[in-house]
Design brief:
- There is one protein chain.
- The protein is an alpha+beta fold.
- The chain is globular and about 40 Å long.
- Strands 1, 2, 3, 4, 5 and 6 form a six-stranded mixed beta sheet that branches.
- It has one domain.
- It contains eight helices and six strands; from the N terminus they run αααββββααββααα.
- The termini are far apart.
C-alpha cells in the first residue's frame, strides 16, 4: 500500500514538472483546443449553449481537464477566459489553470470539458486574487438547455456562473470537491511576449492579439455578440 502511494505521488510530481516546461507552441495548442471545445459544444443539440444565455454573457471560461488516479484522484488542466468589454467587443483569451483533487479509493480516467458562462462583471475579477473555487467563491449551477430557456427561467439566468460540462471516459471512486480556477501569468507572458498580466490583458487594448488567438476571439464574438 505504501509503495502504491509513493508511486502515485511520484507520478503527480512528474506531471507537474512536465507541465512547467511548456513552449509557446504548447500554449497556442491550448488556445486552439479550447476553440475546438467551444465549436463542438455549439455543434451538438445536447450540449449547445442557448443564444439567450450567451446574450447575457459577460465572460466565458473554457476548460479542458483530465482526471485520473489510483488511490489519489487528480483533475488537472488548463483553460482560457475572455471578458466582454463595455464596447461590446470580446477580450484576448487569457490562459488559466484548472484543477482539483480528492483522497479515497478510486481508479480510472476521464476527460472533462467545461464551459462557464459568467453573467456578471465581478466574478471574472476573482481570478485577480490568483484563484477561486467554483461554487464556493462564485455561485454556480448547471446551465439551462434550449427548452429550459424557453420557459423564461429568470432566476437561472441571473446566476453568476452557468456551467456546461461534457465528460468522456470512465471514473469510479470518491466524489471530488468543486474545482478551482487560477491565473497563469507566466503562460500569458510567454504566449503574448509581454510583461502585462491578467487584468491588463483582459480589460485593456495594450496587447495586439496574435494571429493564433484571433479565430477563438472571432468565434466568441459571433456566438455572443
Amino acid at each position: 500500500m505504501k509503495k502504491l502511494l509513493v508511486l502515485s505521488l511520484l507520478a503527480l510530481f512528474g506531471a507537474a514538472i512536465v507541465r512547467a516546461e511548456v513552449s509557446k507552441a504548447d500554449l497556442v495548442d491550448r488556445v486552439e483546443t479550447c476553440e475546438a471545445i467551444l465549436q463542438e459544444f455549439q455543434s451538438r443539440p445536447d450540449t449547445a449553449i442557448p443564444a439567450a444565455v450567451l446574450r447575457k454573457a459577460r465572460a466565458i471560461i473554457i476548460v479542458n481537464q483530465f482526471k485520473a488516479g489510483f488511490l489519489i484522484g487528480v483533475k488537472d488542466g488548463y483553460g482560457v477566459v475572455l471578458v466582454k468589454k463595455p464596447n461590446g467587443r470580446w477580450s484576448l483569451p487569457v490562459l488559466i489553470s484548472a484543477g482539483e483533487a480528492s483522497l479515497g479509493f478510486q481508479a480510472g480516467a476521464t476527460a472533462v470539458e467545461t464551459i462557464y458562462v459568467i453573467t456578471d462583471d465581478n466574478t471574472p475579477r476573482l481570478l485577480f486574487n490568483h484563484s477561486f473555487n467554483v461554487g464556493v467563491d462564485a455561485k454556480a449551477i448547471a446551465g439551462p438547455k434550449e427548452a429550459e430557456v424557453e420557459r423564461n427561467n429568470v432566476d437561472i439566468l441571473r446566476t453568476p456562473m452557468l456551467v456546461y460540462t461534457k465528460v468522456a471516459g470512465l471514473y469510479a471512486g470518491a466524489t471530488v470537491k468543486a474545482g478551482h480556477l487560477s491565473r497563469n501569468d507566466s503562460a500569458n507572458c510567454l504566449l503574448y511576449n509581454t510583461r502585462y498580466t491578467m487584468p491588463e490583458l483582459l480589460y485593456s487594448d495594450w496587447v495586439t492579439p496574435i494571429a493564433e488567438v484571433q479565430p477563438l476571439m472571432a468565434l466568441v464574438q459571433r456566438i455572443a455578440p
